[in-house]
Amino acid sequence: MTSSIQASNAWRKLAELAENQRNLHLRDLFNADAQRFADFSLAHDGLLLDYSKQRLSRETLAAWCDLWQSADVPGWIARMRAGEHINGSEDRAVLHIALRERSSEARPEVREVLGRMRDFCAAVQGGAWLGASGERITDIVNIGIGGSDLGPRMITQALAAQCQPALRVRYVANLDAADLATTLADLQPQRTLFVVASKTFTTQETMTNARSARAWLVAALGEAAVARHFVAVSTNLAEVAKFGIDPTNTFAFWDWVGGRFSLWSAIGLPIALAVGFANFERLLDGAHAMDRHFFSAPPERNLPGILALIDIWNIDFLGAGNRAVLPYSQSLALLPRYLQQLEMESNGKRVGRDGQPVSCATAPVVWGEAGTNGQHAFYQLIHQGGRLIPCEFIALKEADFSLPGHHAMLLANCFAQSEALMRGKTLQEARDELHSAGLAADKVAQLAPFKVFPGNQPSTTLLLDRLDPCALGQLIALYEHKTFVQGIVWGINSFDQWGVEYGKQLAARLLPMLEGAQPITALDSSTAALIGACRQAKNAAGSS
Ligand code: F6P
After folding, report:
1. β-pairing, 47-50 with 41-44?
2. Scanning 121, 372, 381, 405, which has the fewest C-beta atoms within 10 Å of its C-beta?
3. Do 258 and 177 share a structural domain?
4. Which numbered atom of ligand 1 lies nearest the CA of 262?
């Protein structure tokens, strides 16, 4: 069993603190300490992290600094930066940080691909790159899934205010034909450019969608048109060539870039097409600025470090199994989905780097929705459902789209939620409120219990000056490093993803049975019956 960190004095100290603080209420912590916000917040480069509404004390912070050393976070950072193969089970380096290195230190291969991306964007945006029939490209369709989709899709939406109006960028990921078919429905082949994005270029969803898109294009414009309407982004150039995409239309990246950390590589091409290459560079600059902060700031002032502490504290010491990500920004509506892959694929692990079972809880279930929409759906449960649900609010000081009145209301709602979650409302307060509203005593007694809010629900608020490419780069790199720190502390490899393999393996076995090419044999009764029902329906449809 991987237990070294749990045996450390720092971990034991945190366990002891959690036990002693079990009955403390956030409301009391604020009442007792006017300094609380000042002590539990960090401001850095346009980003304000308020974690004063977490159930932490100064002693927790001190123990965290010890845990940082016990887990050897500085050593792991150094190993990552040196290009050691810290992704042990895949025997790979982890160097997405090298993709945003912008000084003379930048790797020549990274610079070369960035240069090609810049030229390609200029050609498509400026009209030098034309479709096979001589028309300008007006629509880009990125075909990819997981890390080859979620990051670019989220960033493109987040930077909608910067999007180039002449070029619409869409994303197709799902194997379900509904995704591609509905996307193609209002597109014209002669003006559409497909970016096939896949690190491996073997992913079933992406290759199936790419083949169907190719067939759609060839049916309209002929085989020769593929060269003007398909480009690829991949580490597997041999497979790209086999698919029939011209090597000169291929943008490479490398096996030291993990899929969910790849938006900074050529996987970011649709971002650059959507918002312009200069904005893509600013995104890289923002991420690089966060890298520098992460590498140098001490644990008590290290933004990724503090976010990691908060999660570890809530998960391993207070027993939370989940975290709600609640961006009060429609532009960041896809952030919860993006973070699901980043955190759950990275840290949803049961064995440590040594292959032995871990003895603590690892990644939480990450979920969420943009505010204020979530308020009218699931906040009821967060407030009164009786579960521990740490919340992460993300808001912008300055709106990216402005209509009179909206932004102040949006922020008022965001801050009100974290206040309500922290403070709660006692039975006496509920009674007083009803009484002041003029209700009769029996009505007050009847209704008051429904109006009680336990509060003490921990939350963090990340307040960005504004949502520009640089700030967004910082924000995403912040989450990447936080995820890395958590993996270090939990003793796991955050950069492999063996858990996605088994389902793929079984699907390959079931496909011929579903298609009727093989008899339904050697299956459990449930799986056999489900396949049987689909085959029956297909046969019935065929014979009618
Ligand atoms: O979900 C598994 C996974 O390997 C992810 O890590 C990756 O981002 C995704 O599949 C897509 O892989 P590829 O870019 O190779 O198509």
Report:
1. antiparallel
2. 405
3. yes
4. 8
Mean pLDDT of the chain: 96
473 and 332 in one domain? Answer: yes
Q: Which of 304, 290, 349 is nearest to 68 (CA)?
A: 304
**What local confidence, expressed as pLDDT, does residue 193 receive?**
98
CA pair distance 13, 10, nearest whole angstrom:
5
Look up residue 24 and give its amino acid. Answer: L
Instruction: Determine the structural domain holding residue 238 and report its residue range.
Output: 101-275
Of 479, 462, 168, give the one whose Cα is nearest residue 338. 479
Between the CA atoms of 382, 384, 387 and 390, what dihedral angle is there, to the nearest 10 degrees?
30
- The residue nearest atom 16 of ligand 1, judged by CA position, is 198
Strands 47-50 and 139-143: unpaired
Which ligand 1 atom is nearest residue 267's CA? 14
Give the closest residue (by CA) to ligand 1 atom 9: 146
CATH number of the CATH domain containing 330: 3.40.50.10490
Q: Are residues 339 and 196 in the same domain?
A: no
Find where tokens 């065929």 sit. Answer: 542
**Pure H helices in 328-452:** 335-339, 346-347, 379-384, 406-423, 427-436, 441-447
Which 3 state secondary structure label does DSSP give 322?
strand
Mutate to test the pocket of ligand 1, among 90, 145, 204, 338 (most ligand atoms within 8 A of CB): 145
Report the alpha-carbon distance of residue 410 to residue 372 in Å, rounded. Answer: 7
Residues 229, 315, single domain; the answer is: no
Measured distance CA(305)–CA(297) in Å, rounded? 9
State both tokens at 23: 């009955």
pLDDT tens by residue, 365-392: 999 999 999 999 999 999 999 999 999 9
Please indicate, yes or no, whether residues 67 and 142 belong to a single structural domain of this protein: no
Structural domain count, the chain: 4
Residues of the chain with confidence (pLDDT) below 50 = none
Strand-pair partners of 65: none
Q: Determine the distance separating the centroid of ligand 1 and the alpha carbon of 378, expressed in angstroms.
A: 30
Same domain, 209 and 78: no
Identify whether residues 311 and 185 lie together within a single domain: no
